[in-house]
Each structure stands twice: as structure tokens, then as C-alpha cells.
Write a structure and sequence with these properties.
The protein is of the alpha/beta class. It contains 12 helices and 19 strands. It starts with a strand and ends with a helix.
Length: about 475
């Protein structure tokens, strides 16, 4: 669904006014404020030196989190000279203030009427279901026919780096791996979903009940980096990627992301430490045979256009950004980047979806319908929220213990839209391919997804849909 992340330097003023968009409705728990600032340090050689803690302490910092597999450390310090000191270390590749991701929620105004004409779930009625409302899953499975060929299996695990999961949801409990799930959010000790976003993503991948996922027999595991309020530090996300890879998941889904200014002269030693961390973490996962699927983002921007991005900064935030900017992890090498298609058009990408040469494939993420779309394209700043039709969004699982999401009055289910909702379809497709072909590498899985995608938009590959809309039925029949 439509949302905007703010990426700011923790406990300090906005440094680059880094604004992001992807993880719809997500907010993480408020962590007790400290006087310290947080920093990310990337050591050389992708390994931590034996004396890295002493080096950090000598520079005036304290290690908060070490990701030893990729040479990354999260550091806290109240020393104003810490960055200058640690950047002088001959073993350090890059060091910067650590960024935290926030979100601005989709407006929850009364305009745009909530859906109230769908029967509430009757958990005692096994014959009641919402399958006919799942236009998105039906599209990528050819009316669920792919389930007859291969519905996935519990040997194939999708790691969902998100807000957690409702492990007791009737449609997920048989496939949800609570024991193997983990939280990376300080102050929490479980991976239960307090927001709803992660449960929605999980349902698109592996629901098996009143709604169905792409692979209804796949196993899903939560790697929680967000909670109910607040933000997620970059190191939490990086740590989760590495941990999921160490746990030997088959696929990682990251329906999260953000804008990051990546000036080539940012620091004397190259890329920002956060960019280095992302690149190393993704490469670490891919080297372990993990397919990494990510959302393209919801800014309606051309990821391949320097001028488009610069205009975005100027028009939205009054910033004159001279260097190139990047969306992470959408523009990190080694990932499958997914844009969002809609229900009603084979030619137009969802109005909010980012696009550009970085797009590998598209998948159904839904939108607000053709009336809203036309108005938005004429005037993106117009006021016509009352023209939203929530039935064009995607239906999936939602925590049964949370109040209904604002798009409907349904308990345990929600209509959402966004590239956050598109990415898990491709993650599910990748996992089912892995279940069918256990020896396939990430590159071979991606090649098959692209080869068998439904061509949308202009003939052949394009900057909006990439190779086309991913389709698991075609992939299994290939």
C-alpha cells in the first residue's frame, strides 16, 4: 500500500532528509532514547579484525551489534569526534551515522468507503473462503492450477524480513515456523506481528485456508525488524539477512526499503557504510544459495533517471542533491526487484510503483482502481481520496488479534496495495520453483521466472514490468 519511509540519522537532526517508500503501514517499537548517536562501520576484507572492539573503543565508541560474517558493526557513541577518529583507522572501509527507517501511513480518512459487504470469517466453516476475491493470486497461479502441479513443501522455507507474523492465524498456522522465527528489535523477545504488514506478506506466500498463497504448502519464517511503532535501524535489517542465510532459508522476501543518497564522495573511503552493509549481506545470502526478492518502492519514480530523482528531492523536500541516489535494497546487485501491476490494466503499472532498468519482473500489488488512477496521473497532488476503491487492492491474511484494517471491516484479513504486496508473489514463485528444482541456484531461479513471465506493456522487456508479470504455472510447465 502507499506509504513513505523517512530515513534519518538517529538521535540527530535530518542529515539528508532521506525519504523512502515501500513498507506499507509499518512502524516499529519505540526504543528508549539515548544521548548517544549510532553509527555503522564497515571494516575492510568483509571480516572483522580480531581487535575490532578495541579499535571501536579507542575511537570513542561502543559496539552495539556485530555482524561478523560480513565485517559490519553497529556502534553507539556520545563522542562528537567518533566518526573522524574511526575513519582514520586503516582497517575501516567506510563509517557513517546509522540510519533508521520510519513510515508515513496511508491516510485513514473516512473518504474511500471501507468494504463491508463481505461476510466475516466463520472459523468453524471449512467451506467458507475468499478465493474468488484473490484476483492477484489467481493471476500468478492461473486460477490456482499451479497448486495442482506443486504447492511447495515444508523443506522449502521463505524468510520474511518484516514486522513479524500471526503464527496462530488459521490460514498460516500449519505453515508458520514460530520456533525458527527471530526478532532483531531491541526490547522484544518474539516475532509476533504487532502491525499487520508481515502477516499480509506471509499470506500471499503460503496461506492455506480461506485465502490461498502462491505456495500453500511452503514454510514461512519471520525475521522481525519492525514492530508497532517507531523505526528499524539499518543494522537490524542487515543482521536479519545474514541470519536468514545462515538458517538456510531458500528465499528471502524484503517488502521494505528506502531512498538513500549515495554520493560517490560520501566519506574519503568510498560508499556509505549502510550501502556496503546491504551489498555484502545480499551477496552473502546469494552465495549461500538464497534467492533474495525485494520491492521496487512506491514513489512513482524512474530508478534509472538521475534527473527524475533530483527533481523528486527538489520538489518534495527542497533539496538540491547533486550526486546519484539509490533505492535500497531495490538497486542492490543480486536481488530480484519487483514492480507492481494492477487488476484492470495490462499496459499501465500501478500508479505508485517505481520503475526503471532495475526492474526484473512485475507482480500484482493492486491499486485504488481505474477512476483514481486516471485522476492521479492527471494531478498527483490532487485531493480525491474519496475515489479510492479498495476492492482493487490485494486480499491476504491479517493478525486476528488486531482491529480490522481501515480498508474493510474484516477480522483476520485485509485489503492492501503496494510493491510490498507484489514482492511476496515473486518470493512465493521462487520458493515453489526451488521446491520443484532443489538444485537450482538463485540465478537459475531468476532466469526461469523471467523466461516464463507474462509479457505486459510494450512487447518484450521494458522499464515498467521488466520481463513481465511473474507466473508460477508457466514456470512449472516450462
Amino acid at each position: 500500500m502507499k506509504a513513505t519511509y523517512k530515513m534519518i540519522a538517529m538521535n540527530s537532526t535530518i542529515v539528508f532528509s532521506l525519504i523512502a517508500a515501500t513498507l506499507a503501514t509499518v512502524q516499529a517499537p519505540v526504543v528508549e532514547a539515548k544521548a548517544d548517536k549510532y553509527y555503522m562501520v564497515a571494516f575492510k576484507g568483509e571480516e572483522l579484525p580480531d581487535d575490532y572492539e578495541e579499535r571501536i573503543e579507542e575511537a570513542g565508541g561502543e559496539v552495539e551489534r556485530a555482524i561478523e560474517e560480513i565485517g559490519i558493526v553497529s556502534v553507539s557513541s556520545d563522542d562528537a569526534d567518533f566518526l573522524d577518529q574511526i575513519r582514520e583507522d586503516s582497517e575501516v572501509h567506510a563509517a557513517d551515522e546509522e540510519l533508521e527507517v520510519y513510515i508515513e501511513e496511508d491516510p485513514e480518512d473516512a473518504d474511500g468507503e471501507p468494504i463491508t459487504d463481505i461476510p466475516q470469517p466463520d472459523w468453524d466453516d471449512p467451506d467458507q473462503n475468499y478465493h474468488d476475491l484473490q484476483w492477484d493470486i489467481k493471476r500468478v497461479t492461473n486460477d490456482f492450477k499451479s497448486h495442482e502441479l506443486n504447492p511447495g513443501n515444508h523443506d522449502t522455507v521463505v524468510g520474511i524480513i518484516d514486522t513479524g507474523m500471526d503464527f496462530d492465524h488459521p490460514d498460516l498456522k500449519d505453515n508458520a515456523d514460530e520456533k525458527g522465527s527471530k526478532t532483531f528489535v531491541p526490547g522484544t523477545d518474539d516475532a509476533w506481528d504487532e502491525n499487520g504488514h508481515g502477516t499480509h506478506v506471509a499470506g500471499s506466500i503460503a496461506a492455506n485456508g480461506k485465502v490461498l498463497g502462491v505456495g500453500p504448502n511452503l514454510k514461512v519464517r519471520a525475521y522481525r525488524v519492525f514492530g508497532a511503532t517507531g523505526g528499524a535501524q539499518q543494522s537490524w535489517i542487515t543482521d536479519a539477512i545474514v541470519e536468514a542465510a545462515n538458517d538456510e532459508v531458500a528465499v528471502i522476501n524484503m517488502s521494505l526499503g528506502g531512498w538513500r543518497w549515495m554520493a560517490h564522495n560520501l566519506g574519503e573511503k568510498g560508499d556509505s557504510a549502510s550501502m556496503v552493509a546491504y551489498k555484502r549481506a545480499v551477496q552473502y545470502a546469494v552465495n549461500k544459495g538464497v534467492t533474495v526478492v525485494v520491492a521496487a518502492g512506491n514513489d512513482s519514480r524512474n530508478l534509472g533517471s538521475l534527473h527524475d530523482m533530483q527533481d523528486y528531492w527538489k520538489d518534495t523536500y527542497g533539496l538540491d542533491i547533486k550526486g546519484p541516489s539509490r533505492v535500497v535494497p531495490a538497486q542492490i546487485p543480486g536481488v530480484i526487484t519487483v514492480s507492481s501491476s494492477n487488476e484492470w490494466s495490462d499496459d499501465l503499472l500501478a500508479f505508485y510503483s517505481n520503475y526503471g532498468n532495475d526492474i526484473d519482473v512485475a507482480a500484482p500489488g493492486g491499486d485504488n482502481g481505474p477512476v483514481y488512477d486516471e485522476l492521479y496521473r492527471e494531478d498527483p497532488d490532487g485531493d480525491y481520496l474519496n475515489k479510492r476503491d479498495f476492492k482493487y487492492r490485494t486480499l491476504s491474511t491479517y493478525p486476528t488479534y488486531l482491529p480490522p484494517y481501515f480498508t474493510s471491516n474484516l477480522k483476520g484479513y485485509a485489503f492492501m496495495h503496494g510493491t510490498s504486496m507484489a514482492a511476496p508473489k515473486v518470493a512465493g514463485i521462487a520458493a515453489v520453483i526451488k521446491a520443484e528444482h532443489p538444485n537450482y541456484s538463485p540465478s537459475k531461479i531468476q532466469a526461469l521466472i523471467e523466461k516464463t513471465a507474462e509479457d505486459l506493456g510494450k512487447n518484450g522487456e521494458d522499464k515498467y514490468f521488466g520481463a513481465g508479470e511473474a507466473n508460477i504455472y508457466h514456470a512449472l510447465k516450462d
